[in-house]
Amino acid sequence: MHILRRPRRLRTSAAVRALVEETSVSVNDLILPVFVVEGQNVKREVASMPGVYRHSLDNLLDEIGQCQDLGIKAFDLFPGLDESKKDKYASESWREGSMYLEAIHAVKSKYPDVVVMTDVAMDPYSSDGHDGYVENGEILNDETLEYLGKMGVAQAQAGADILGPSDMMDGRVGYLREKLDDAGFSKVAIMSYTAKYASALYSPFRDALESAPKFGDKKTYQMNPANIKEALIEAELDYAEGADYLMVKPAMLYLDIIKMLNDNFALPIAAYNISGEYSMIKAAAQKGWIDGDRVMLETLTSIKRAGAKIILTYFAKEFAQIQQQR
Ligand SMILES: NCc1[nH]cc(CCC(=O)O)c1CC(=O)O
Ligand SMILES: [Mg+2]
Questions:
Q1: Exposure of 30 by Cβ count < 10 A (0-12 exposed, 13-18 middle, 19+ buried)?
Q2: How far is 87 from 288, CA to CA, in rounded Å?
Q3: What angle do CA 169, 173, 178 make, to 5 degrees?
Q4: How many CB atoms lie under 10 A from the CB of residue 135?
Q5: Which DSSP state fits 223?
Q6: Quick one: which of 127, 131, 134 has its CA closest to 151?
Q7: Which residue stretches of the chain have pLDDT < 70?
């Protein structure tokens, strides 16, 4: 047979395949989300996220040390608070000496070279379980900004390198930028949750933090999974308001959105490979229905191929361990 073009020639051996490989994932690309809770020597697994734990600060510091030895350089901290600490205003989020602010400070003091990202949204601190301030069953936009501003500045004061506003209120990136600059934190960056969709896949995360909304859902602020164009508007606004990174969330089901933002914006694009995406893979792997390690690698590669430079993923430590064994 004379077949002039034989694409299979580029797949003949592992070495050839490596030569022509276009996308590879590195630990440099990854941010590991971690859950910090009150207490001493606490390491409680999240039932719906096998292999993911809520750590008290002492254990978290050890965990971050281990991850740093594996090459992971960036961590996104989330607080799990006791119900008694929550109120309408999320006031625990800016209270001096609060568990979360102490944790940010301790991580940065012990590991000055790691990147500490923090979460800006009211839900883990809110007695309503919503990302914004609630009045008469409504999530109010402009009133929320004031609380997010206090929260963000407190996190910057504690040592955060990157703030991650995950709340989806309009105008919050510009508001935070101004508050940070006024307080002398012009070096603190903002990774905006630019296109955050109202996904059914956040539930394991809400289990982890016991932060599910007490009423209703998040559809008046998070985006409709059916829509593409509003992601472009959100990105234009975040760019204009001074965001340093644009994030898409979730990742696996939103690869088209990742690609669109990467094609249209020069800022680094991040994607959040969220809790439910992790849990689906873990559950199927535990049942022996899929090869969990291979699906993890394929997932991270696909997110990167779509255009994300940065991936927030609960798989970061496992990925790093597998890389190190190679
Ligand atoms: N501000 C809330 C927040 N910040 C990060 C996540 C989800 C992360 C994940 O599922 O892994 C959520 C959940 C939500 O919007 O309800
Ligand atoms: Mg927005």
A1: buried
A2: 43
A3: 125
A4: 11
A5: B
A6: 131
A7: none
How many A from CA of 3 to the centre of ligand 1? 52
CB-based contact 276:201 (threshold 8 Å): yes
Q: Give the model's pLDDT for residue 72.
A: 98
* Predicted local confidence at residue 326, as pLDDT: 78
Q: What's the pLDDT tens digit per position in 177-194?
A: 999 999 999 999 999 999
Nearest by Cα to 216 from 131, 93, 90, 89: 131
Could you tell me if the CB of 203 is within 6 A of ligand 1?
no
Please give the number of the atom of ligand 1 that sits closest to the Cα of 222: 15
Identify the bridge partners of residue 37 per DSSP, sorted by sequence position.
Answer: 56, 80
Catalytic: 43?
no
Strands annotated E in the chain: 30-37, 43-46, 49-56, 74-80, 115-120, 133-135, 138-140, 162-165, 189-196, 245-249, 269-273, 310-313
Quote the tokens at residue 286. Answer: 């535990």
Domains of the chain plus CATH, in order, are: 23-325 (3.20.20.70)
Distance CA 285, CA 228 (A): 32
234: CA distance to ligand 2 center in Å? 5
**pLDDT of amino acid 162:** 99
pLDDT digits (tens, 9 = 90+) for 225-273: 999 999 999 999 999 999 999 999 999 999 999 999 999 999 999 999 9
Best residue among 126, 191, 202 to mutate for probing ligand 1's pocket (most ligand atoms within 8 Å of CB) is 202
234 marked among binding-site residues: yes
pLDDT of residue 43: 97
Residue 94 Cβ inside 6 Å of ligand 1? The answer reads no
273 lines ligand 1 (CB under 6 A): no
CA-based nearest residue to 202, from 79, 92, 48, 307: 48
| Secondary structure (3-state) at 252 | helix
Which residues contact residue 235 at a Cβ distance below 8 angstroms, ignoring those fewer than 6 apart?
194, 195, 246, 261, 264, 265
